[in-house]
Structure prediction request, 428 residues.
Amino acid sequence: MARRSGSADLPLHGGQVPKWLADRMTRLGAVMTQAVVHHYGRDELLRRLANPFWFQAFGAVMGMDWHSSGITTSVIGALKRGLTPLQKELGVHVCGGRGRYSRQTPSELIAIGDQVGFDGGKLAQASRLVAKVDSAAVHDGFDLYLHGFVVTDDGHWAVVQQGMNGERRQARRYHWLSEGLTSFVDDPHTAIEGAGQGEIVNLADRRAATSRCAQLDLLSSLGPDRIVSELARLEGPEQRTEVEAQPLLPHLVMPAHHDVRPEDVVARRLRGNLAAAADRGPADFSELLLTPGVGARTVRALAMVAEVVHGAPCRFSDPGRFSFAHGGKDRHPFPVPLKVLDETIKVWKSAVQKAKLGRDEELGALRRLDDQARTLERHATGPGVDELIADERQRSHSYGGRSVFGWEQPPASGPRTDAMVRAVSKRR
Prediction:
C-alpha cells in the first residue's frame, strides 16, 4: 500500500450519536469486522482502516451521517465497544478514542502488550510519535482531538486520528499504517483527509529532510534569540522559489450539503447493488424473503454491506451510495430503517457464527451478492437516485424509520406500489 493514499474534505459536525443507533453500529461493526478477518485476515482489516475511502463507506453503511466528521468518532467508538469482548478470539484491539480517551492510548497498549506478548512500550511510543507528527510536524491549522489505535496480536497497527478547525467548521482525518513504515518523519501517512487550506507546512514530508536538519543546526548555532532577530531582519518582500510539485493523489471531497444528491452517487454501482439483490435474493435468501414487509428490502442492504466487506478499494469513491443501505440518523438520504438494520445484523451474525463452526454457506451467499452486483452493474437499469430516496421515505414508517427527529409517521397517501422492484428487475 502507498504511504499516502489521498485526501478528503470533511464538514465538522457536532452532537452525539443516539443510543438506539450507537448500539446497532456496535453490533454491525463487530460482525463486519469478523467477516473481513475471516475472509482476508487481520492485516487486511488494518489496510482497510487505513484507507480513507473505505473508512467513510464503512461508517455510511452503518447509518451514520454519510459525509461528516462524526463518522470518525462513531466508527472508532463502535469498534472499541464491539471488538473488546472479541479481542482474545480475533486478536484485534482498539485503543484510544476522543478527548481524554485518546490520552489513555499508551497505557492501554502497554497493558495489551503484557497480555499478548508484544512490546507495548514500543507501540506506546509509536502512538505518541504519530500524534506528535500530526499535531506539531504538520502545520495545517487543525488541532487533534481524536486518536484511535488499532493493533493486532502480531504488533501490526493502524491509526486513525482527526483534527478540527473550528473557525472554518472543517475536520481533517489522518490515516497511518505500520506496514512498510520505516520512518515517522519521511512521508509516514497512508492518507490525510481534509479541506485544502492553502499553504501547509508539512515537516513530515521526505522533501523536508533538509529543512529539519537546518532547523536543528540553526537552533544549536544561533540559539532562539538570534533566530528571532535574524527573522525580523529578513522580513520584507516575499521571496518566491520554485517548489517541487506535489504528486497527484486521489481526493475525496465530502460536500457541505446534508442531502444525498445524484452527483454524490455512482448510479451504475447503486443499480448493480439493487439488481444483485433482486437476482440473488430469491435463490439465496428465500426464508428471509418470507418475512413480511422487510425481506426484499433487507437483501438490498445486505448487498451493500457485502460490498464493504469484499469490495476493491476503487469501489469506495462514492461513500454516499452506502447510505442507501441503512439511511442516516439525520434523515439523509432517509431515516434509518430499524427493522431492516436489525435484520441485516441478524443475518450477518448468523453467517459469522456458522462460519466459526466451519459452515460457510451463509457467508458464501452474502459474498455472491457482491460478486453479482459487479457483474450486473454494466447492464442494470432502474430508477434514479431521487426516485429511490422518495420511495424509501414513503415506505419509511413500515420499515421502522427513525432519526434524531423521532419516529417516521405513516404517509398521508399510503405506501407506493412496487414499481421500484419491477423497474430494477428489468435491468437488462
